[in-house]
Amino acid sequence: MSKEAWIEVRVLSPFGWEELIAGALTGADCLGAREGSSSPHPPELPPGVSLIRSHYRAALDTALRRDEISKAISALRVIDDELSDLTTSFRQLPAEDYAKSWMKVWHPFRCGRLAVIAPWTKTALREDDIRMELEPGGVFGTGRHATTRMILRFLQERLRGGERVLDCGSGTGILAVAARLFGAGEIAGFDLDAGSAAVAYDLAARNGVAENATFLEGDFSCINELSAPYEVVVANLYSDLLVGHARELEAALAPGGWLCVSGLNALREDAVREALADVGLVVTGRRARGVWRALVAERG
What we know:
Blueprint: E1 6-14, H1 18-27, E2 31-35, E3 49-57, H2 63-74, E4 88-93, H3 97-105, E5 109-111, E6 114-117, E7 130-133, H4 146-158, E8 164-168, H5 174-181, E9 186-191, H6 196-206, E10 213-217, E11 230-236, H7 239-244, H8 246-251, E12 253-265, H9 269-278, E13 281-289, E14 292-299
């Protein structure tokens, strides 16, 4: 992984506004907005708030850049009184921060038959385990989050072998690579995070499935560069993105194929269902884990 230093941007969000704030950070040219602390023992947050983090390269850090990001967050106050006291803080992470922190706190885990291990771990696997070696780092997607695990479960249960799979918002490539290990014939993915394509290609290569794998950096326009449609489309994204790009998700889906989405919480499930229905997709499968939801949809 790169030893480049990064600036972490932190915003305390009132419950229910996490996606809006994450979107504002992304719109201010930050990378990989996510919820929660990276620390194994984070300080307790005030009641009713979540921590939203994002980052950008320290080499691009200036007083003007920090001011622009702070203004983008402060501008949200016009939406609702709950957003009137938002503050933005910044801290520089040492170049080794990602690698060292992940090596200290990240542990192997299983999801069904999939056993996800890091290069530095020595774990005895079961005879029927499907092994994936993952080096955690700065790009979003270490596989442990409930939304990722629910999609991994659906992939294990529903893939029959030989399908072409597209991952929208692929991050490290864990969902696409797992699909290939589960028997998919071809995988593709795209993500906005700088460096994500290289990380995803590395994950595919270290697990022996780089052949028939394509990863791009960019937004949903990347679908035009890929060989859609796909028999399986997955998207682990904020619900606002799922709603806003429902038509592109449907268009990328081959006849008879299925879509699996997650990243939505219980409060946004109905909105995502309605957006899918508006483009002709009917929810045929559902999983819940805590506040998080995953849905499978097919054409009606």
